[in-house]
Amino acid sequence: MNLARNLERSARLYPDNIAMIQGNRRVSYAELDAWASRIAGGLAALGLKPGDLIALCAPNSAEWLAFYFGALKLGGVAVTLAVQLTDRELELLLSHAKPRALFCASERAAFVEQVRGDAGLEFVIGPDDKLPLGKLEKMGPPLQAVERDREDTACVLYTGGTTGIPKGVELSHENINTAINHVAHMERSMDSDRAICFLPFNHVFGQMHIMNATIMTGGGLVLLPKFDLDQVLAAINDHAVTKLYAVPTVYVRLLQLAELKAKLGQVRYCFSAAASMAREVVRRWQELTGLAIHEAYGMTETASMVTYNHFSRHVVGSVGQAAGTTEVSIRDIQGNRLPHGREGEICIRGRGVMKGYLGQPQATAEAFHGPWLRSGDVGYLDQDGYLFIVDRLKDLIITGGENVYPREVEEVLAEQPAVAECSVIGLPDPEYGERVTAVCVPAPGRSIDPEALRAALKAKLSGFKVPKEIIIRDDLPKSPSGKILKREIKKELV
């Protein structure tokens, strides 16, 4: 088994299909596959071999895709790093993973040269004339994907931030193929689909759910460097996009547009991930566009999809039922299974679950109850097996001895017309231990009266859940994938 065989199969079946569009540039499946094979041959000529770690730290592009699949064809392990990393963070992750080679953007070249010795880097590819990608392609005969064991590591994705001890999630060829097969099946993906991707390829959503699942089914990827509303709308129109992948904050932005349905053109399918979606946003989207916002539950440690909210029976507020052969169980802190309707930690078992954390056996052991991966999320299953997310365990607020899950408060805030975005956190309080605090961004043309907002919340929430403080901001800090960063908000306010 080799993940790169998905590209080779699509190149055989759909050689003339467009694999990738970026601006005016189009690359067919036949071209992308041949390009990746030349890169694999060049890497082999350098002395790299199956099992070697090969890193990428560059923006989404045709070059990124070709190098990624070239590394996989060789049998290497693709270590995908965020281009937004600071120099210190990049050095930390390179020193942790110790890849033999790195494909990086030109702006990182000078710094990488400074740290390559300490990080164990032998080859730096792409940034300058020492070893540009074009030269690498000509160094050896093209290679087709080599055979790997299904349990061999295919990719390492870093999760949990870059402070402290980093966690590099080791995903095997089987892990990834399991997850992306679930995605393709559940989403009814077709080779005629065009999927827009402005989310970074280092992130599990961009790399696995969007990119790898699309490549496997012979569809086209429409790449944008980041979310830009005008560019997204233009790409949807110019390239006949059929699948819109985004995060909740993007859907909130789109809902503010006039004639939204017309602007979506040929979009037949909408999907949201990376953070929980407020029910009110889903309701308004369906009302205005006639399309559901499909959701799934997944994490880096599961190579993406764990559950999916179906085409046939879409339950608003849920993240769906277990996908394929995956099992989902709700368990208490000791690892005991809880009955339907009871809240507890979401635990996962299946062929998509990671091998472990790179070089961290203790952290790996702590992530499991026996064969069950501990998600760190609180949720419950209904009688039909639909999963409902309550919140992150670590985001629980304990105020005056009472437990408050921020998501419940955020759902009610999302119903208020004056609120465009919000985040609820707990801040230290000498009397209550923690005080419930809401940080809100006003909707365009609206203003927020904190006392009026508190009064509205009191009508729907128990008193201890109503924020004692409401802070108004122009925007909220977000990760490259668009997730609101509660930890950054706390840092600013504590």
Strand-helix topology:
Layout: H1 5-13, E1 18-22, E2 25-28, H2 29-45, E3 53-57, H3 62-74, E4 77-80, H4 87-97, E5 101-104, H5 109-119, E6 123-125, H6 133-136, E7 153-159, E8 167-172, H7 173-186, E9 194-197, H8 204-217, E10 220-223, H9 229-238, E11 243-246, H10 248-254, H11 260-263, E12 269-272, H12 279-289, E13 293-299, E14 304-308, E15 321-322, E16 327-331, E17 344-349, E18 356-357, H13 361-366, E19 368-369, E20 372-381, E21 387-392, E22 397-399, E23 402-404, H14 406-414, E24 419-429, E25 433-442, H15 450-458, E26 469-472, H16 486-493
Helix pairs in contact: 1-2, 1-8, 2-3, 4-5, 7-8
Walk me through this protein's architecture.
With 494 residues, this protein is an alpha/beta fold. Among the domains are: 5-185, Rossmann fold (3-Layer(aba) Sandwich), CATH 3.40.50; 396-493, GMP Synthetase, Chain A, domain 3 (2-Layer Sandwich). The protein is 32% helix and 26% strand. It is built from 16 helices and 26 strands. A nine-stranded mixed β-sheet has the order 2-1-10-9-11-12-13-14-15, sandwiched between helices. A seven-stranded mixed β-sheet has the order 6-5-3-4-7-8-18, sandwiched between helices. Helix 1 (5-13) packs antiparallel against helix 2, helix 1 (5-13) packs parallel to helix 8 and helix 4 runs parallel beside helix 5. The mean pLDDT is 91.
